[in-house]
UniProtKB/TrEMBL annotation, chains A, B:
<protein>
    <submittedName>
        <fullName>DUF2520 domain-containing protein</fullName>
    </submittedName>
</protein>
<dbReference type="InterPro" id="IPR037108">
    <property type="entry name" value="TM1727-like_C_sf"/>
</dbReference>
<dbReference type="InterPro" id="IPR008927">
    <property type="entry name" value="6-PGluconate_DH-like_C_sf"/>
</dbReference>
<feature type="domain" description="DUF2520">
    <location>
        <begin position="122"/>
        <end position="245"/>
    </location>
</feature>
<dbReference type="InterPro" id="IPR036291">
    <property type="entry name" value="NAD(P)-bd_dom_sf"/>
</dbReference>
<dbReference type="InterPro" id="IPR018931">
    <property type="entry name" value="DUF2520"/>
</dbReference>
<dbReference type="Pfam" id="PF10728">
    <property type="entry name" value="DUF2520"/>
</dbReference>
Length: 253, 253
């Protein structure tokens, strides 16, 4: 049995807790958070702790807290032999180099507290300070996901940045469309099948090949008509993305 | 039996052909395109025509050609009684006002030639010059889709513009991420589950409520680190979308 401690009480921590609880061969022996009230997602309250000095010996520690708090917490923790990992996309592995065994366990997914996620489909990006630790991390990761990748710190930062584009920014485009629909008394739901298909398409095609629309066809008349319909802020976004598409596909600007 | 003529040979025309062929109570009696070779998606070559003067009497004409060609084609067509519609998101219904009966049959979906689409899930936005014509159009639309909406020309233009945001622009963000992944020797596929989840989420949540990421959390350190990793063009896009998120959620810029 591989003994695991989870540190944190946010979305990532709660999804790790759920997935690790259900996996074969893994045992969560403690969940730590300074405010113990936030650990209400843990079924067994006896394994919840709020005092970092009470941490038990485990094989693996998963630090799933805010990026900016990782370094400070690491200084406080007194862990001798277990492998200490964080789950951040942007924090360097070296933030944990005070430990003998350290690494990164980064799930590329967007987690919301009450949205169940099929963890077996979540890509896990692993990094560790020794090949032995990396192999151990791979063994653990394979128990919870089918998609395990070895990714160095630089690549992980690149992935995290890519995730901002595909997740945060595209969700914001959906939000702007939602706002615009409301202004025109249209239900946003009318766009949902299109959004779904946009994504289904790129499961088969590369996004580069799936591009359509006025910018792609260089349809300046439609582009001008659209620009005239938008407020200044949305206009700027429309313009910059249109120019970026035209540039990429060698259309005239 | 409702007799239908399809005009055009592009993605929309071929998907309309497929869906109308399979529907109960509809009969496609002709498909018109100037270059008859492009009508290879039509099973029965005898109904294909390339001479607009050979158009038969039908109950419904669906013009699915490029936006900029609609007005000119309409001038050429000699249709007496049937209902003449176009399928464009951005062209006004008035482009067809020379006919006695006219309207719009706008499917909000992204069509690629070899990607089958479940037409019953495609929202159809209808408009017509009389309520009688509108009712007839609704009757036809209900035979091919479960999602039928009455939408005026102004709302339709707003929808078309929204579709550019949710489809064209978000696909371009995926393409930029793909390019960036390639530069960092990462397979784009590693991001696919995240993209899928981004969309699954907004089937339950409104996109406004689903927003996450450094801009949303006002995490300026990560934002600065990301900006430093990008070339000038991607930097501009990152910046403008980050500012737009911060503005929308009342974060400091």
């Amino acid at each position: 049995m591989i003994k695991v401690v989870i540190i944190g009480a946010g979305n990532v921590a709660s999804h790790l807790y759920r997935s690790f609880s259900e996996a074969q061969g893994l045992e969560i022996i403690q969940v730590f958070n300074r405010n113990i009230d936030h650990l209400n997602f843990v079924h067994d309250s006896e394994i919840c702790i709020s005092d970092p000095s009470k941490l038990k010996e485990a094989h693996l520690y998963l630090i799933a807290i805010k990026d900016e708090a990782i370094t400070a917490l690491a200084q406080e923790l007194n862990i001798k032999t277990g492998l200490v990992t964080h789950t951040s996309g942007s924090v360097s592995m070296d933030a944990l180099m005070k430990f003998e065994n350290y690494g990164v366990f980064y799930p590329i997914q967007t987690f919301s507290k009450n949205m169940p996620v099929d963890f077996s489909e979540v890509p896990l990006c692993l990094e560790a300070n020794t090949s032995e630790n990396l192999n151990f991390l791979k063994e653990v990761a394979a128990k919870v996901s089918n998609k395990v990748f070895e990714v160095n710190s630089e690549q992980r930062r690149a992935l995290h940045l890519s995730a901002v584009f595909v997740n945060n920014f595209s969700n914001h485009l959906f939000t702007l469309a939602q706002e615009y629909c409301q202004q025109n008394e249209l239900p946003f739901g009318i766009l949902r099948p299109l959004i779904k298909e946009t994504v289904s398409k790129i499961e088969i095609l590369e996004p580069y090949s799936a591009q359509t629309g006025p910018a792609m066809r260089n349809d300046q008349e439609t582009i001008n008509a659209h620009l005239a319909m938008l407020d200044e802020d949305k206009q700027k976004i429309y313009k910059i993305l249109t120019e970026s598409i035209q540039k990429l596909y060698g259309k005239k600007l």
